[in-house]
Amino acid sequence: MSPIAITRLLILAAVWGASFLFMRIIAPVLGTLPTAFFRVSIACLGLVVILALLRVRWNFNGKLGACLVLGMVNSGIPATLYSVAAQVLPAGYSAIFNATTPLMGVLIGALFFREPMTLAKLSGIFLGLFGVGILSGAGPVEFDYKLMQGALSCLAATTCYGFAGFLARRWLDQQGGLDSRLSALGSMMGATLLLLPLFAYNVMTEPPASWGGWQVWLSLLGLGLLCTAFAYILYFRLLSEIGPVKATTVTFMIPAFGVLWGAWLLDEPLSMAHLYGGVLIALALWLVLKPAKAH
């Protein structure tokens, strides 16, 4: 993998890791569905402005429908599922389940897309999950129906991510490919269309007690424009460059950057567990990203 691709992967992890800071401000005030809807809709509007400023032609080459579907699978449905999980699952467990995305990618690739399964990849995936578990510091909780409901919601979301990565490469990269900026815009349009009726129903039945102040809305702008619009341009570029399995290893690094942002900006404490988890994640990334031996 080229140094430029590695740099993009690190930037994406840092940006998505920062989203946790914004979520801590927004979600307790607005609730889960409004937060998810505003995130994708602000990202959609932001991408419209970005493409207009850059004078990018809206030429989807007949792939707009595929982009809309991908947006629903890759953004809209997972956002809704994580909204369900957030009601019942501790944050540490959500981080662990989110990091199963590369494992889902490896399994889905082997089962449905004829991707080679290697021992190094599998070892890296499980080592990465172990590192994320240490890093998140999630202690054991009592197994009950709510825990199972939250776990299944998270696993369904990561399954969506796994399928979307391969579908994006199959649907968007064929016949000359599609500009990553247009891929991101179409994806956010699809996610917005999916979440709009859910958001409207939520507001009509259980409106937020408060719509927040300037801090909440500035955080929403950061979440929508930086952590979603810009991040998805990077993500779709990486999907084309390094493939879906390697691109989804970004989920291993997101908790690490979340810890670093929290320590730097929120004065959250660091411990040796963070060092051990970070080392394991680095080793896992090397196993998954290293080139396969030529036969």
User: How large is the share of residues in beta strands?
Assistant: under 5%
Q: Report the major sheet.
A: none
Helical content stands at over 70%
Q: What is the overall number of helices?
A: 12
Order of helices and strands: HHHHHHHHHHHH
What attributes does this structure have?
79% helix; DMT family transporter; mainly alpha; transmembrane helix
Topology, please?
Layout: H1 3-30, H2 32-53, H3 64-86, H4 91-98, H5 101-112, H6 119-136, H7 145-172, H8 180-205, H9 214-242, H10 244-247, H11 250-265, H12 272-289
Helix pairs in contact: 1-2, 1-9, 1-11, 2-3, 2-8, 2-9, 3-7, 3-8, 4-6, 4-7, 5-7, 6-11, 6-12, 8-9, 11-12
